[in-house]
Sequence to fold (252 residues):
Amino acid sequence: MSTASIRFTTFAAPSRFYRLANALNPWLWALASLLALAGLYVGFVVAPTDATQGEAYRIIFIHVPAASLSMVLYLAMAFWAALGWILNARMASMLARAIAPTGALFTFIALWTGALWGKPTWGTWWVWDARLTSELILLFLFLGYIALVSSIDDMVRGDKAGAVLAIVGSVNVPIIYFSVQWWNTLHQGATISLTAAPKMAQTMLLAMALMTFAFWAYAFAVVFTRAQALALERDAGTEWARDVARSGKKVS
Fold:
């Protein structure tokens, strides 16, 4: 077996993943908190007022990172669900389950902040715009996955059923991303592009970057924490899980 294969499967065992999450979570929570505080300060205090949208534009520092992360989390959920199904990897399936609530949360935040942004910009809280509608469908897919896997008592069967839904639903992600190019929508195009010069001031870009990394750190922390709980639940009868239960603290 190659070194790469060994590294890939090292944390497939729930007990090893649990220890890894133990080591990373304190740093991730601290990083998320510090980055969020810095991002909110730069975005809502330091960044200048937009010449066109005024103060209302500041919602982008929450809306844009949340919207982008909602799509990434869905693809991550689909990836781990598929990996768990194909390779019969329990930890991968648990990661998929752990990602779903966080993905739903960020999708809801994206929709809610989008409505707050849309009211002063478009004059209405909601329009059946292609991007808004496909983002709403993404929320339904997350909630549908959660409901499906939770409704099946047999966890293995639930993981497989959830994987099918997650994989099929992943076709919605490129629809969300390319909707502003494929259809004539009210939603503006990408503010930041790898192939074009930035369309905003440096302080605005800094605030966006800080909030994006803060959301990523939070997502990793909460997903790892939820995955730990799932691992303990599924391996309740194993020695390592009993050790955690007896000690009343995390395995080091």
Observations:
- The chain has nine helices and no strands.
- Residues 25-43+58-233 form one domain.
